[in-house]
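Budget justification aside, the reviewers requested a transparent look at the raw inputs and outputs of the sequence design task funded under Objective 1. We therefore reproduce one unedited record. The lines immediately below are the structure tokens for a 289-residue chain.
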């Protein structure tokens, strides 16, 4: 049986400047519980107050390995009809020279994959995770509307600047949105684990600008002390759609692969892009970045 061709990348991500080191200065580690079944009223209250909740062992090693196998299968082109692999922009000139294993360490992200791999679909619809999501969505049944794999290759994986996820989604501003970030590899400060600003979701939308990405202005973040969310494989982070967060450049020799899903209440209607930008868009508001 022939090996599927992987000589042509689907898409390249942008090339961005290195971030200032002072943008990521964690002074603490995130609060967490051991398992999804440990989430009770106190943990739900903590989430609503602080905008996040980490779970150290949400998935079994087998579930995580299955998810990794699913991602690798898509990256290696074993589903030719899957077209949503983004490679790091800095790898554009060398990608054709890389072998299969090396190509894995040139990928930036994947999206829209749950309908192409049952292993990835299973983790996005994990019954215990969905049960934990419902009280975080104020009692509404969760409906997944975004699926992504976020990958930081060793030394190459670039920053995802500080932002609020609701700045990307065309939902009414009052709609509860919960992100779920699942570690496939160990996520550390050195290889670009999530960093968050607990409680800042309660301040509402922050203006975003197109700089290294669609992001909160660096000047708004500089000098702010963050909280790091290191996770072992199988750990996860629930976080509010208004919680400011970012991930720095991978400065280590280790991969940092993660899945990210977003959930909204079932049946909620989307709104116009102009409505979203009226809350989050910084352009044309007599402000600078």
């Amino acid at each position: 049986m022939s090996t599927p061709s992987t000589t042509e990348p689907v898409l390249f991500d942008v090339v961005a400047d290195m971030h200032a080191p002072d943008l990521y200065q964690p002074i603490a580690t995130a609060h967490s519980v051991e398992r999804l079944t440990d989430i009770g009223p106190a943990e739900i209250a903590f989430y609503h107050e602080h905008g996040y909740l980490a779970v150290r062992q949400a998935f079994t090693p087998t579930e995580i390995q299955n998810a990794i196998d699913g991602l690798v299968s898509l990256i290696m082109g074993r589903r030719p009809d899957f077209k949503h692999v983004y490679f790091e922009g800095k790898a554009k000139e060398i990608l054709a020279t890389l072998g299969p294993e090396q190509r894995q360490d040139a990928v930036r992200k994947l999206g829209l994959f749950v309908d192409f791999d049952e292993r990835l679909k299973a983790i996005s619809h994990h019954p215990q995770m969905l049960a934990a999501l419902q009280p975080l969505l104020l009692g509404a049944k969760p409906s997944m509307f975004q699926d992504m794999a976020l990958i930081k290759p060793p030394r190459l994986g670039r920053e995802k600047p500080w932002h609020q996820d609701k700045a990307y989604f065309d939902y009414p501003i009052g709609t509860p949105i919960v992100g779920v970030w699942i570690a496939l590899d160990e996520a550390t400060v050195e290889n670009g684990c999530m960093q968050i600003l607990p409680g800042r979701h309660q301040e509402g939308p922050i203006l975003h600008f197109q700089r290294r990405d669609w992001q909160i202005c660096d000047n708004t973040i500089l000098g702010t002390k963050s909280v790091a969310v290191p996770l072992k494989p199988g750990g996860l982070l629930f976080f509010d759609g208004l919680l400011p967060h970012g991930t720095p450049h991978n400065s280590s020799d280790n991969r940092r692969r993660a899945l990210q899903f977003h959930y909204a209440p079932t049946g909620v209607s989307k709104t116009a892009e102009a409505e979203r930008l009226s809350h989050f868009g910084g352009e044309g508001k007599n402000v600078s970045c």
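The chain has one domain: 11-15+22-280. Residues 1-7 have pLDDT under 50 and may be disordered. Computational costs for records of this kind are itemized in the attached budget.
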